[in-house]
Amino acid sequence: MKQASDLYIPFEWERRRPILLEKCLYVPDHYDGHDQLAIDWNDPAVFEKKQPLVVEYCSGNGQWIAMMAKQNPLLNWVAVEMDFERARKIWLKIFRQNLPNLFVVYGEGLTFSRHYLPDKSVHEAYVNFPDPWPKRRHAKHRLISDAFVSEMDRILQPGSSAILTTDDAAYSDWIIRRFSQWQSAFAPMQYTTEWPSFGDSYFYSLWLGQQRTIRFHRFISKKVRGEVRGRGI
Ligand SMILES: C[S@@+](CC[C@H](N)C(=O)[O-])C[C@H]1O[C@@H](n2cnc3c(N)ncnc32)[C@H](O)[C@@H]1O
Question: For a pocket test of ligand 1, which of 26, 30, 82 has the largest count of ligand atoms closer than 8 A to its C-beta?
Fold first, then answer.
């Protein structure tokens, strides 16, 4: 049985580089050589089966995505988490819960997306309870930014969705404003506060227990472009 210590980055920070480990991709920060490693998401070293890819950013301890991977074995699930101890917890779940369709990325979400996800490669993207960074001077730390929405536009397949969940009303408004600026790419959307089949996560249970209202947003990629429009049809 795997132990937490079985997952480690085999070099010092000064010698950092992206590396594909067993069921884990390490994406270093403050690094500009990402192009030296290309990930083939259909490689059996990554996922046993070639299946549609679903990405969750900000996975925390992985409770939600492990449950999703178990319930949806015909999809390949990628958990993205920038805290190493939490990434490790997700990694352990892959082996302890026998989830060959789950893979973990230890790294920052926007950086990972930009360098390791090809155009139109993602069937669905989730962000569950991203840190809201409520103070204006901390807004630069928010994952959801114009750059992130642009990435969603690039990586999502036409007709597929980015689904974002938060208990923070101000962050919800911010998210809606960011996606609204891409009206040509995403169908307009507000949010719903009820989604019985959402699943469960540490922060979902925490906020529900405090009677907080949770907002679920779904932004559907409506783009039809590339080859088809390029030919003037
Ligand atoms: C509030 S927790 C939510 C965890 C989990 N989704 C849940 O519902 O319990 C936010 C998590 O996102 C991670 N995180 C924050 N910003 C991130 C980023 N830019 N890229 C990847 N992970 C990030 C944090 O380390 C933390 O584990």
Answer: 82
